[in-house]
Amino acid sequence: MDREDSFYKDGLKFSCKMCSYCCRGEPGFVYISRTDLDRFLAEMNLEAGEFIEKYCRWVPYYDGSEVLCLKETKNNDCIFWNNGCAAYKARPLQCSTYPLWDFIVESKKSWDEAAQDCPGMNSGKLHSYEEITEKAAAYRRNRPIKRHEFEQKPVQ
Ligand code: SF4
Ligand code: SF4
pTM to 2 decimals? Predict the structure, then answer.
């Protein structure tokens, strides 16, 4: 879509209000890509197997495969939630790009619908058209690790 046709051609406002709604209290999926995993391993000085056993689960994906995802506690909190994100520096790209995801910025309607659950949207920092398109593309490219691929070629 051309910039002039985009509803966010003049940017969108978003600043996280730290309400934690998107990190806890409801079941969800925080998927882990190779880049996310590498970032975690470097930051936490862990080996892949150790990190996956402690913090991850394999979950069914829409294409029939199983993919890597962060664990949740019994309360449906993200495993890293502890009065805020305990893994903030290494948090997955899914978290760091929210809410500038491709399917959220697809239309004004999808943006407004998502904003009903996120008090940080439509207030605070203005994000430029260029930043939004870059983050949406990064989110789209950031595919979760598939179990069968990982087992063929594990990260050391
Ligand atoms: S729902 Fe929005 S404001 Fe609340 S923690 Fe998530 S990103 Fe921040
Ligand atoms: S990794 Fe951090 S930012 Fe992402 S869902 Fe978990 S607690 Fe929230």
Answer: 0.93
